[in-house]
Amino acid sequence: MNETKKRILIIEDEPDIVRGLTDALEFEKLEVLSTGLGGDGVRIMRERGADCVILDLMLPDTNGYQVCEEIRSFNSLVPIIMLTAKAQESDKVRGLDVGADDYVTKPFSVAELLARINAIFRRLHKAGTPFEEVLTIGGCEVNVKKHTITRARGKPEQLSFYEVELLKLLYERAEQPVSRDEILDKIWGIEAYPSNRTVDNFIVKLRKKVEEDLKEPRHILTVYGLGYKLVR
Predict the structure, then answer these.
(1) CATH code of domain 134-230
(2) CA distance 76 to 80
(3) Is 161 helix (H, G, I), strand (E, B) or coil?
(4) CA angle 63, 67, 71 (to 5 degrees)
(5) How far apart are alpha carbons 6 and 2 in whole angstroms?
(6) C-alpha span between 202 and 101 (Å, rounded)
(7) What angle do CA 90, 92, 98 make, to 5 degrees?
(8) For the residues of 86-134, what is the DSSP string, one character each?
(9) Cα 11 from Cα 61, distance rounded (Å)
(10) Helix axes 198-210, 161-172, angle to 10 degrees
(11) Of 52, 55, 48, which Cα lies nearest the Cα of 25?
(12) Cα-Cα-Cα-Cα dihedral sign, residues 141, 143, 148, 153
């Protein structure tokens, strides 16, 4: 992990979960802020900021979707991991659509969550190493520092942390297939369970921003039985 002390904001109203996560994160030498209310979580993000947000879906004063949208309205880059007791695919997709970067279903393994957080910070640390600032993919330009994508003659559109990291990984390996397992390991820090469709959901989001014709994608292609590859 980077030597700089990172700050984690936990927005969760179950005290046992907060205590367990706080102990584990502080053991990893991370600073932890926590609140059980969504409104307070948004305020803390505005006033103090964080390097990663762990956000519960069901909160006493609001829901995680609304909190995520509010945070995204002023901070498009902070990685957000959503916690929820819901496991339906539609809930996961909705969470990703409003700006969440990852999704962990309760009950969850603290070790697994730590692995995901560690993967986030490895990617953040790697982001500080030399890399092309602007990636050209078809008629789009991706600014990896500003986290924006711009179509020809269009306005810049914001990209999330994981969207940029996924594009960078595929770009580094352009014209070569990259497996879902490798993507999950290198970016999310998790194994590819049969029910884990995180990568697929992010590919759908990216295609909407990159491809001119979603029915016949030309740049982010599916390699059946393996994963995906990028064609510039």
Answers:
(1) 1.10.10.10
(2) 10
(3) helix
(4) 170
(5) 8
(6) 9
(7) 100
(8) ---HHHHHHHHHTT-SEEEESS--HHHHHHHHHHHHHHHHHHTS---SE
(9) 12
(10) 80
(11) 52
(12) negative
Core vs surface per residue 175-186: b (16+ CB within 10 A) or e: eebbebebbbeb
What gap in Å lies between CA 31 and CA 39, rounded to an integer? Answer: 21
Name the token pair of 121: 């910070």
Residue 25 β-bridge partners: none
The residue type at 58: M
Residue 172, token pair as written in the block: 């580094």
DSSP 3-state of 80? strand
| DSSP assignment letter at 144 | T
Enclosing H/E stretch for 10: strand 7-11
Angle between helices 110-127 and 15-27 (to 10 degrees): 50
Distance CA 221, CA 228 (A): 6
- Give the start-to-end residue ranges of the domains of the chain: 7-127, 134-230
> Over the stretch 3-32, which tens digit does the pLDDT of each residue have?
578 999 999 999 999 999 999 999 999 999
Residue 36's pLDDT is what?
97
Other C-beta atoms lying within 10 Å of the C-beta of residue 206 = 25
pLDDT surpassing 80 at residue 179: yes
Percent of the chain with pLDDT over 70: 91
Fold of 7-127: Rossmann fold (3.40.50)
